[in-house]
Design a protein that fits this description.
This protein has helices at about 30-45, 70-85, 95-105, 120-130, 145-155, 180-185, 215-225, 255-270, and strands at about 5, 10, 20, 50-55, 90-95, 110, 135, 160-165, 170, 175, 190-195, 200, 210, 230-235, 250. With about 270 residues, it is of the alpha/beta class. The strands form four sheets. The chain has an eight-stranded parallel beta barrel with strand order 3-4-5-6-7-8-11-14, surrounded by seven helices. α2 (about 70-85) links the parallel β4 (about 50-55) and β5. The longest helix has 18 residues, at about 30-45. It is globular and about 40 Å long. The mean pLDDT is about 95.
Length: about 270
C-alpha cells in the first residue's frame, strides 16, 4: 500500500483514519471558516487526520439555475485562508486542464470529480503537477476498471494517488454501494476513501436538483470502515437544509463528532484483526 502525504497528513499504510470533509460548495467565507474550524477541533480531539474540502465551482449541477460557487479566484483565496488560519491541508475539484495549474499553486491536493475520472488529459495534467490527487471513481465504472485510470495517472511518475468510491448508478435516479468494490480498489495499492454523502444521492431525484437519503449515512459509513477503507469523505454543513448544494445529503456539523467517534472505534477494531 502506497502512503500518500497531503500537507502534514499521511494517508494509508497503517496511518490513522483520514477524513476529507467540508461543505459541498464554498457558499461564503463565514460558513467555510466556521465549518473548517470546528472540524479541525473535532479531528484534533479524536486524533483523526483531517483534510478540508469545499468546491470553488460545482460544474456538474443538475440545473442551469443551480448555485455553482464563487469561482476559482475567490474560492482559492478562501481555501488559502482556511489553511493559514487552521493549519489544515485543503483540496478542491478541478474540471478542466486549464484549471489545474492555478489550482495546484494554492491547493495541497487536487480532486477529479467522478464524472471526469476517465478524462485522460485532465488525469495526466493533474498528475504532472506532482501533487497528491484524489480521483473519484465514476458512477459508471466497475471497480476493476479503475486500474486503467491508475495506469494513466502513474504514467507520469506521480504515485501520490487516492481513489474514492462514491456509489454506482443503479437504474435511474439511484445509486448503490457495492462493498465488494472496496477490496478490489485496495488491491491496486493506493489509499481508498469512501464518499459517504455522495453515495446517498438520488441523482436528479427532485427534478431540478439531486435528492438524497441522509438517514443511511451512518450504516454505510460503518460498513465501509469495516470493509477496510483508509479514509472517509463526508460533506458537512452547519445547516444542511439551507445549503446551496447537496442539501439532501450533507450531514449537520453539530452531529458529526458522535459519528466520527463511532467510526474511529470500528476502524481501530478492524485494524486489530
Amino acid at each position: 500500500m502506497n502512503e500518500v502525504t497531503v500537507g502534514q497528513v499521511r494517508v494509508g499504510k497503517g496511518n490513522p483514519l483520514a477524513l476529507i470533509a467540508g461543505p459541498c460548495v464554498i457558499e461564503n467565507e463565514e460558513v467555510t471558516l466556521a465549518t473548517a474550524g470546528r472540524l479541525r477541533e473535532i479531528c484534533d480531539d479524536l486524533k483523526l487526520s483531517f483534510i478540508f474540502k469545499s468546491s470553488y465551482d460545482k460544474a456538474n449541477r443538475t440545473s442551469i439555475s443551480s448555485f455553482r460557487g464563487p469561482g476559482m479566484e475567490k474560492g482559492l483565496r478562501i481555501l488559502n485562508d482556511v489553511r493559514n488560519q487552521f493549519g489544515v491541508p485543503v483540496i478542491s475539484d478541478v474540471h478542466s486542464v486549464e484549471e489545474v495549474k492555478p489550482a495546484a499553486e494554492v491547493l495541497d491536493a487536487l480532486q477529479i470529480p467522478a464524472f471526469l475520472s476517465r478524462q485522460t488529459d485532465l488525469v495526466l495534467s493533474s498528475s504532472r503537477t506532482g501533487k497528491p490527487v484524489n480521483i473519484k471513481k465514476g458512477q459508471f465504472l466497475a471497480p476493476w476498471d479503475v486500474k486503467h485510470v491508475i495506469e494513466k495517472f502513474v504514467s507520469t511518475g506521480n504515485k501520490n494517488l487516492m481513489i474514492t468510491e462514491r456509489g454506482t448508478s443503479f437504474g435511474y435516479n439511484n445509486l448503490i454501494v457495492d462493498f465488494r468494490g472496496f477490496a478490489v480498489l485496495r488491491s491496486f495499492g493506493y489509499p481508498v476513501f469512501f464518499d459517504v454523502t455522495h453515495s446517498l444521492q438520488l441523482p436528479g431525484g427532485e427534478g431540478v436538483r439531486t435528492g438524497g437519503q441522509r438517514e443511511f449515512a451512518e450504516p454505510l459509513a460503518r460498513a465501509a470502515v469495516a470493509a477496510g477503507v483508509d479514509g472517509l469523505f463526508i460533506e458537512v454543513h452547519p445547516n444542511p437544509n439551507l445549503a446551496l448544494s447537496d442539501a439532501s445529503t450533507m450531514l449537520p456539523l453539530n452531529g458529526i463528532e458522535i459519528l466520527l467517534r463511532r467510526l474511529k472505534t470500528v476502524f481501530e477494531t478492524v485494524r486489530e484483526w
